[in-house]
Design a protein that fits this description.
Blueprint: E1 2-6, H1 10-17, E2 24-26, H2 29-35, H3 39-49, E3 54-57, H4 63-74, E4 80-85, H5 88-99, E5 104-109, H6 112-120, E6 125-128, H7 130-135, H8 140-153, E7 159-162, H9 168-176, E8 181-184, H10 186-192, H11 196-212
Parallel strand pairs: 1-2, 1-8, 2-3, 3-4, 4-5, 5-6, 6-7, 7-8
Helix pairs in contact: 1-3, 4-5, 6-8
This protein binds erythose-4-phosphate.
Erythose-4-phosphate binds at residues 6, 26, 28, 107, 127, 129, 131-132, 163-164, 183.
Length: 217
Amino acid sequence: MQIFLDTTDTAVLKDLAATGLVDGVTTNPSLIAKSGRPMLEVIAEICDLVEGPVSAEVAAIDVDGMLAEGRRLASVAQNVVVKVPLTRAGLTATGELSREGILTNVTLCFSAAQALLAAKAGATYISPFIGRLDDHGADGMGLITEIRAIYDNYDFDTEILAASIRSPAHVTASALAGADCATIPPATFADLFKHPLTEKGLDQFMSDWAKTGQSIL
Ligand code: E4P
């Protein structure tokens, strides 16, 4: 499963990308607002930091506006993926952008029927929002399972990008459910490395090693 970071914080991104485990980045209008920086500048900087796909979301909600913004965003770098909301206008724009060879990420997906339409529109990625569904009292992970089954039934190429991830357990469950990618907040990504038994075991090994008085080098 590919791991994307859901962030516009380029300092944090640079630090975490050094692990070699970050395959791409997603952003959204809220994260752009949080950065306090001009969107095109942030997206260009992120695209310089990671070779993989970088999702940048349109702000227009009409087809012509989404197409114009999508083409502009795609011109920033070859790894930009144009993020489009899952609305009727959004899927019309997705179809046109896809025909133009522009990569697309259809966002704010909350049902399997929506995901089916996005795949038919030619979306490169579909982003089901797991955490927000759970918050709403629904079964976020169940949605990933349903979309996986539908896409496999019809051999759709659209990749399932598990979004709105809130915990390491969400990451594990997404992988088990067959998501192609997960976009993860930086703090949750950092938590993926941790286990109390790893820390306890390492403390013991270091303590015992010190008693030997040896040096490997
Ligand atoms: C994904 O593309 C979205 O930017 C993100 O995962 C939304 O997460 P949130 O529900 O925590 O805001």
